[in-house]
Amino acid sequence: MIKRMALMAMLMVAVSMGAEEKKAVTLREVLLAELRSTHNDNKDWFVPANVAVKGLTAEQANWKDGKGNHSVGQLAYHLIFWNRRNLMRLKGEPAEKFSGNNDETFDAFDAKKWEETVKELDNVMTEMEKWVETADEEKLQKAAHVFANISTHNAYHIGQIIYVRKEQGSWDPNNGIR
User: Fold this and answer.
1) What does pTM read for this prediction?
2) I want to staple 62 with a disulfide (CB 3.0 to 4.6 A). Which of 85, 111, 129, 174 is the partner?
């Protein structure tokens, strides 16, 4: 019995000595992980924006189901609008005039500019990540709740994009969904 206890104690000491100390996760790391999971990091539970819009033609991006739902292009444009507006606010830049009518943030999509829309979506999400990477701690603390809302909003509408693509028949189930 004593031999077993001694052996157990030695194992516990060896395990504790070999275990690396876990580094505390910083707010910056959490915010970047949130943003990247909805932008281009395909390791999480849902599809990021870059994968959600990948490979669509302008015609497919403009398709609607006839039930009053938005097209993929409208959803992408909406994300660009709100992400850009939040980024401008974070940077202290004046936001473009906006009537407050959220329908306008969907309806301004132009299918002729689909490829540009895809690039803009990627660019604005990249710019938000850069802001988080370079902001000082005080700004990060003040903006943390904004990023929680941005990430949730992005995930919600990206889910809609996937749903529209499934309804349309343009979604490849091998695109990385778990």
Assistant:
1) 0.84
2) 111
